């Protein structure tokens, strides 16, 4: 339970306690409990041979670590670990990929604020983009409904959603 793992993300090496990953993710739980070969030179998870998490950014991983291993500064009055909107999106990405269900639900809750003055509030377009990317159907639905109900809407304001989505939104509006 107290064992550490050495992980490499984006050419950065991280020494992390195993327990947080075991508790939060079936992906890591399975990875860490796979029987290791008898030859010590091929065992991954130590300094000479870290477990490489390819395709991810170190900044995304650091944001996830803030949630997995909070410090006393992270707790009330700051119930959301004092992460920026971008960090929450990074944690949502990794928690979705690595099947970290509780963390993923917490990310969705943190980013679902309705107050536009809250720095975690998602724009209408962000709801659609992020909802599609990270499988949050409620955000997609809310974003499209908000776009359809806007009094004025330009193609430039929704171009980032893709031409097909933009055309569908204009068709619904008409």
UniProtKB/TrEMBL annotation:
InterPro entries per record: BTB/POZ_dom, SKP1/BTB/POZ_sf
| Highest taxon above the source species | Eukaryota
**BTB domain sequence ranges:** 3-77
Under what name is this protein listed?
A: BTB domain-containing protein
């Amino acid at each position: 339970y107290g064992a550490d793992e050495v992980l490499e993300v984006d050419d950065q090496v991280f020494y992390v306690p195993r327990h947080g990953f075991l508790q939060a993710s079936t992906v890591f739980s399975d990875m860490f409990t796979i029987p290791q070969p008898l030859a010590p030179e091929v065992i991954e998870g130590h300094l000479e041979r870290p477990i490489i998490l390819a395709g991810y950014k170190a900044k995304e991983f650091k944001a996830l670590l803030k949630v997995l291993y909070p410090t006393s500064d992270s707790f009330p009055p700051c119930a959301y670990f004092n992460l920026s909107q971008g960090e929450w999106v990074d944690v949502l990405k990794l928690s979705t990929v690595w099947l970290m269900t509780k963390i993923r639900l917490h990310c969705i809750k943190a980013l679902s604020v309705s107050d536009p003055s809250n720095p975690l509030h998602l724009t209408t377009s962000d709801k659609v983009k992020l909802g599609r990317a990270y499988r949050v159907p409620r955000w997609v639905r809310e974003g499209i409904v908000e776009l359809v109900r806007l009094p004025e809407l330009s193609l430039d304001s929704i171009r980032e959603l893709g031409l097909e989505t933009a055309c569908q939104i204009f068709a619904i509006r008409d």
